[in-house]
Amino acid sequence: MYEVIGQVSRVLGPVIHAKGITKAQMLELVEVGEDRLIGEIVRLQGNEITVQVYEDTTGLAPGAKVYGSGMPLSVELGPGLLSSIYDGVQRPLEVIKAQSGQYIHRGVRIPSIDRQKKWSFTPVARAGDRIEPGQVLGTVQETEQVIHKIMAPPNISGEIKTMITEGEYTVETTIAVIKAASGENEISMIQRWPVRQGRPIQERLPSDIPLITGQRVIDTLFPVAKGGAVAVPGGFGTGKTMVEHQVAKWSDADVVVYIGCGERGNEITDVLQEFPKLTDPRSGRPLMERTILIANTSNMPVAAREASIYTGITMAEYYRDQGFHVAIMADSSSRWAEALRELSGRMEEMPAEEGFPAYLPTRLAEFYERAGMVKTLSGETGSVTIVGAVSPPGGDFSEPVTQHTKRFVRAFWALDRDLANARHYPAISWLDSYSEYVQDITPWWTENVDSEWPELRREILDLLQREERLQQVVKLVGADVLPDSQRLILDVCDLFKNAFLQQSAFDQIDTYATVQRQVKMLKIIVTYYRLGAEAIQQGATLMKLRRLRVLSELSKMKFSIANDEADKLDTLQQRLEREMRRLGEIYAGF
Amino acid sequence: MPDSDKKLYSAREYQGIQQIVGPLLFIENIHDVGYNELVEIRDTRGNERLGVILETSEGAAVVQVFEGTTGLALDQTRVRFRGEPLQLPVNREMLGRVFDGLGRPIDGGPAPVAQERRNVNGSPINPTARTYPTKFIQTGISAIDGMNTLVRGQKLPVFSGSGLPHNRVTAQIVRQAKIVGEEVNFAVVFAAMGVKHDVARFFIDNFEETGVLENVVLFLSLADSPSVERLMTPRTALTMAEYLAFEEDMHVLVILTDMTNYCEALREISTLRGEIPSRKSYPGYLYSDLASLYERAGMVEGSEGSITQVPILTMPNDDISHPIPDLTGYITEGQIVLERDLFQKGIYPPIAGLPSLSRLMKDGIGPGMTREDHAHIASQLFAAYAKVKDVRALASVIGEEELTPLDNTYLEFGNMFEKEFLSQKEDEERSIEDTLDIGWKVISHLPKEELYRISEEELIKYYGK
Ligand SMILES: Nc1ncnc2c1ncn2[C@@H]1O[C@H](COP(=O)(O)OP(=O)(O)OP(=O)(O)O)[C@@H](O)[C@H]1O
Ligand SMILES: [Mg+2]
Question: Deepest in the core among A89, A100, A365, B286, taking most CB within 10 A?
C-alpha cells in the first residue's frame, strides 16, 4: 500500500520537509525513513511537502525516503476498543509493552484492534435487504453492558448480497457483501475513518437531558447536558484532572473516552489501576469496561499529542452512532493547543496571539462542534459530551486558549486558586462558573427528581450572591457589626460550602452523590435558612440557632448518609424542622 | 541512512564553518547528517568540544556547541559527525564519581568502561508499564510528612526564591528521607546546573558527613561552565538514574538544581535561533522540554527500583506564576513552596502552608501507611490555616480588637501552627506520629465545631489529647 513519494530535505524536530514529491494529498498519512516513522502531510507546495512526524526524529537525515499511503490519518473502529489504551495515533500501548518493554520505541507498527480475537456476531440484516449508510448489520456483545452495533460504513449503501450466519468471527472476517452502484463492498467488523472529519449524522437534537456526574456542585449548580460541551480551566494543582477523573468515573454515560493529552504518565496509570476495580453504580460492572483511554503523555511526541484529540473524538462519535451516550474528557486541551503552536512555529507560520497560530479558534470550534445530541444515520439517539480541561499559563483566564474555548462551550467550571489552597475541593468557583444548560434541563429535574429543584437552586444561588456582597462589608468592618439576619446568610453559605459544595473524591461515601441525595441535602440547607430567618425575625438570636443539636449532623451528612440511605435525609429534614419550629415557638409568644 | 553508513561517514572530517552565532554553528557542504546527533568540533589548538544538531537540511546543519564557541575560527575549525546522539556509558561503578554535564569524569578518575551506553535523551516510559507510587517516605519534616507527603517515585520540586534556604531544606530531606522499617539499596544522583561552587560544595560536604558519598553520582555543570552544557546535564543525570533504578533495582533520589538556570539556557538558544517566543520570551516548547525531564521519574513494572525527583528552582521575583515554576507545577506531582514571609519571621523550614501540595499524598497515607486520621487532620489544618490568612488580612484592616473572639482564636492557632508545627530544627527528625500529634495539639486550640473535616471518632480519639 505504501510507495515512495519523495525524499526528506530538512529536519526540524517533529517537522520535516521533503522534496521531489511525485504524488501526495493534504493530510495524507506517510511514513518516513528506514524506521518508517509515521507522519501526516500538513502542507503541499509544488513538488515539496511538509510533514508532521508522530515519533521522535532523532537521527533522521536528509535523503531519507518518504512513503505515501494514499489515505488520510484514520482510526480503526470496531469491537475491542472498549477497555483499550492507545497513544495519540491509536497504537495499543498494552500490546506495545508486551512487545518492547517499559519504554516506547520508535517505528512500532501494531494493529489498533486485535485481529485474532473472535467475537460472537449476530446478524440483524438479511441478504436481499436494502441498506442505507450507517444501518445496523449485526451486533456483537462487546462487554457485559455494551452491545456493539456493526454498521454499514457512512459512505456505503446498496443491497446485501450475502450475509454471514451467526457465529464467532474475527474482526476482519467479511460479514456481509453489499452491492452498490459502484460495485460490491465487502464489509467486515472494522471500519476506518479519517480522524479530522466528523462522522455524519441525520440531524442534531436539542440537549435537554443532564449528564449526571454525581458531583454536587456540577449537577446542582452548573450542570452540563448530554451532548453539551464544558470547559474546566484552572491553574496547576487546582483540580482539573480530579474533576475529569470524577466525571469519567461516575457520570451516567454509556461510554467514556478519556484523553490524557500532554499530561502525566502516572495519572494514566492511576486510571488503569483504579478503573478495573471500581464499579459503575448503574450497571455494577467494572468501570474499565465502558472506558477507552488515550494516553499521549507530556513526554511523548508532540505531533501525536495534537492528533490525540481527534483520535478520541472520532471513537466517541463511532459509539454515538450506535446510539450510546458518550462522554469524552480531554485533559488538557491547552497542551493540544500548545502542540499546535509548536508545530506551527516549526512550519514558520505567522503567529497570532501569544505565538498561537491564527487558526487556533477555528480548530477549537471544530473540535467542540463535534459534541452534540443527535439522531444517528440509523435513526437512534446518541450523544457526545465534551469536558475539556484548560491549563492557562499563570492561572490567568484572559489568555487565548481559555478565551477562545469560552466561545464554543456553554458551561464553564472555573477552578479557583484560593479554594484549592484551602483544600476546598472541587475548587469550582460558584461565582465565576456558569452553565447555559440549566434552562434546557430543568424539566428533566422537575419531572424525574423534585419539582422544587429550580426554586431551591435559585434560592441558594441568590444567597451566595448576597453573601459575596456581605463579605465586602465584613472585609472592611468585621462580621460583628452585621445584624443576625445577615450573619445568618454568612452561616448558611458556610454550611452550604462545607457540607454541600465541598466533596471529597477520596471518601467512599462522599465521592458520588445521586440526584435524590443532592436535592434532599440542598433542601435541608435551604430549609435551615428559611426557618432560621423566620426564627430570627421572631426574635431568636443567631447564637441560639448555632446551638441547635441538629446542626452538627447537617454539617456531616455528606459523610454519614450514603446514597442508598436517602430516607435518612428525610428524617434529618423532619428533625431540623421540628427543632427549628420549637425554637420559633419559644419566641413567637413575645 | 543505515547505521553502517553513518559509521562510515563519522570518520569524515570537515574543515571550516560558515557562520557562528553565540553557541550556534552553521555548517555547509557536508554529508546529510541526522537530527539531534552528536558533533565533535576541534578548534585550532586541537581541543575537542561537543555539540548537537538542532536542524539538518541537505548538505547543511545547525549545531549547538555545549562548551560555547569562544575561540572558534570560521576557517580553521574542524568538524566530525558521530552519527549517533549523545550517549552515556552506565555502570554501577559510577557511584561515588563526579562528572561534568556531558558525563565526562572531572574527579581525576578514569572514564568509566561500560558495556552499555545509553542515549541521554531517553525514551518515554509506556504509561501502561508504570507502577503507581504509593510508598510513604518519611522526611522527618512535619510540613512535608504531615501536609505534603512525599512518596517513593514522586517528582516533587522545591519552589524557592533567592536567599531562601532551599539547599538546607533539600539537604535535610536527603539526610533524613527513609521508608520506616525498611533497609534499602539507595543512591543519590545530583545534577547541578549553573549553581556556584559553594552550593555544590555544601551538598558534597553534606553527603560526606552522612557517609553516603559512595552512593552518590554527581553531574556538575557549575556557574562557570558554559551555559549550553546545562541543557544536557539533567539528561545525563537522569540517564544514570534510570540505569540505577531500573537495571540495578536501586531507589534513586535525583536532585536537580537549579532548574531556573536550565530554563535560561534554553531561552538563550531559542532566542538565538529566532524562534517565535512564548511567555516572557521562553520558547513555546518549554513545557514539553521540561516534561521530557520530569517525566523521567517513577517506578516501572518488572523492576524493584524507583526514581524520586526533587528539582529545585528559584522563582524569579518570588513569582509563582512565572513560566518556570508555572510550567513545572503543571508537570510535577505537587510542589514544596518556600515563603519569604515565614523566613523573615525566623521560621525554618519556611514551607508555605497553602500553596504547597503533594498530589500523590492520597495514596501514600492512611491506615497501614501512616495513620488513619492523617487525611482528615491534614485537610483540616489546610482549611484552618486558610482561615488564619483571611483573619490576618481582616485584622490588618480593622485591627485585632475588632475581631470576633473566634477570629482571635484563629490568630492564636495560626501562630501556634507556624511556631510548633512548621518550625523545627535542621537536625530534628520527627516521626510521622510526632508530626500528627503536633498537628492535633495545635488544631485542638480551635473549638470542635470548627473542625468540620474531621470525623466524630477522630475527635473523640485525638482532640485535645
Ligand atoms: N474532589 C477532590 N477531592 C479531594 N482532593 C482533590 C479533589 N480535587 C482535587 N484534589 C486534590 O488536588 C490535587 C490536584 O488536583 P489535580 O491533579 O486534578 O490538579 P490539576 O488542575 O489537574 O493540575 P495540573 O494542571 O497541574 O494537572 C489532587 O492531587 C488532590 O490532592
Ligand atoms: Mg491535571
Answer: A89
- The DSSP symbol for B125 reads B
pLDDT digits (tens, 9 = 90+) for A11-30: 998 899 999 998 899 999 99
Q: What topology is assigned to A115-192 in CATH? A: OB fold (Dihydrolipoamide Acetyltransferase, E2P) (2.40.50)
Q: CB of A500 within 8 A of CB of A559?
A: no
CA A134 to chain centre: 25
Q: Please choose, from the candidates A2, A81, A76, the residue with its C-alpha nearest in 3D space to the C-alpha of residue A37.
A: A2
Cell of A473: 462589608
The matching CATH number, chosen from 2.160.20.10, 1.10.10.60, 2.40.30.20, 2.40.50.100, for A3-72 is: 2.40.30.20
**Does the beta-carbon distance from B295 to A264 stay under 8 Å?**
yes
- pLDDT, chain B, mean: 93
**Mean of per-residue pLDDT scores for chain A:** 94
Nearest-neighbour CA in chain A from B194: distance (Å): 24
Summarize pLDDT for A377-416 with one digit per residue, the tens.
999 999 999 999 999 999 999 999 999 999 999 999 999 9
Burial of B344 (0-12, 13-18, 19+ CB in 10 A): exposed
B214-248 residue pLDDT tens: 999 999 999 998 888 999 999 999 999 999 999 99
Q: Who's near A496: CB < 8 A, 6+ residues apart?
A: A460, A463, A464, A525
Q: Using CB atoms within 10 A of its CB, is residue B437 exposed (0-12), middle (13-18) or buried (19+)?
A: middle
Kindly write down the DSSP assignment for every residue of B142-205, as one continuous string: HHHHHHS-EETT-B--EEE-TTS-HHHHHHHHHHH-B-TT----EEEEEEEES--HHHHHHHHH
Residue B2 has pLDDT above 80, yes or no: no
Residues B203, A531: Cα–Cα separation, whole Å:
64
Q: Set out the domains of chain B in order of their start, with CATH numbers.
A: 3-84 (2.40.30.20), 88-364 (3.40.50.12240), 374-462 (no CATH)
User: For residues A196 and A27, is the Cβ–Cβ distance under 8 A?
Assistant: yes
Could you say which residues of chain A have pLDDT below 50?
none
Chain A within 8 Å of B36 (Cβ-Cβ)? yes
Residue B178 near residue B207, CB atoms below 8 Å: no
Which of A154, A256, A174, A176 is closest to A213 using CA atoms?
Answer: A256
Q: How far is CA B151 from CA B333, B358, B359, B364, in A?
A: 10, 9, 10, 6
- ipTM > 0.90 (yes/no): yes
Reported as half-sphere exposure (CB side, CA atoms, 13 A), residue B446 has a value of 28
B32 touches chain A (CB under 8 A): yes
Task: Tell the residue number behind the cell numbers 513545557, with chain if given.
Answer: B287
A426 touches chain B (CB under 8 A): no
Which of A334, A326, A327, A328 lies closest to A306, judged by CA? A334
Q: Which chain B residues contact residue A299 at CB under 8 A?
A: 124-125, 288, 291-292, 295-296
Selected from 3.10.129.10, 3.40.630.30, 3.20.20.10, 3.40.50.300, the CATH number assigned to the domain covering A205-438 reads: 3.40.50.300
- The SS3 of residue B234 is helix
